[in-house]
Amino acid sequence: MLKTSAFIASVTNREKPEVVNKPKQRLPKVSILVPLFRETEIAHALIARLTRLTYPKCLLDVILVMEEEDETTRKTLAGIDLPPWIRPVIVPEGSPRTKPRAMNYALDFCQGDIIGIFDAEDAPDPDQITIVARRFQSAPPDVVCLQGVLDYYNPRQNWLARCFTIEYATWFRLMLPGLARLGFAIPLGGTTLYFRRKVLEELGGWDAHNVTEDADLGFRLARHGYRTEMIDTVTEEEANCRPWPWIKQRSRWLKGYMTTYLVHMRQPGLLYRQLGAWKFWGFQAHFLTALSQFILAPFLWSFWLVLFGFYHPLEAILPYSALVALGSMFLSVEVLNIAIHATAVSGRRHKHLIAWAPTMHFYSPLGAIAAYKALYELVLKPFFWDKTAHGLSLVAVAPPRSDDAADLSGIELEPRHESF
Hints:
420 residues, alpha/beta
């Protein structure tokens, strides 16, 4: 019901927030945090992509956030002639070693009034920061966060990359806009996020112990009366296209979701008063359904036995007609899911993925494995950050050149990369 409501709200609303261009109003200084950890494969491509940003470089402050013990990334960047608007910040050794802790440390070094977040493999639209800055100038004061659309630039790499791209298109192009239009608080994505610095510091930055610090921060903003707005600008990322790395990444996200839910529900009465009834129950629906759809997936799959005429263990408890009704309902929901996925990729950019939408049913078992891994780690390793490997779509990387290590002539890229 939640997914269908968000879908309907999204497809029936094509209004975009008006960006008022005020030529006499000076553009603000913008700081971008780019957390890096063992990113030697992607570092050269990252610098090349950042140089494509069209925002005035005198107003741009890009900080490469690195851990003290990450010597490999530091050595790689040492061979690159960084422009003056890009600078490294080294985070002292400490615990927990997480992305939010590193960003909290680097926040003190930022010079901008707007704080943005990119990941190492990101390829943002060149005019993205200009769009964001102008929207902040025209938005109401309670709009303190802008969330861009995340997409993938290697959807043709294999089946897993195709399914991941369909999932992202569904989430960022339909579900999040729909949830926002319904008036719910929304969890944030981990990148292409922009904040008013004053409010970010007022809330104490990110939760260093949460491995999905973005989702947590989205609800903390809502609890304090602030709003997040979706903005029509795209950042392309690299789809995790190998099964075990995908499971590790998803288990980290699900573990973070579990942590976020437990943290915010420590005082449910306070949460209710801060969010209000509508957003409070939206919070419950979002987290419980996001987690249960994976944890209870094996139970749902068991109803294929009924639809194919096999014995189901619940026949000893429920009449066969009830089991058939439940199985038919779950089958109808699966058809609805396929329709939502197909709608999400029906645009010009993703039209080639429509034929793959029915295979999303076989993609979900990976999420169930990740969910049980997340439950295990929630108990035994709650703050462990399972690192995602990047650079898997770079076919071949030339050795760094001493005169210009940012040269990309030896890197073969997917068709969407060729503009780099």
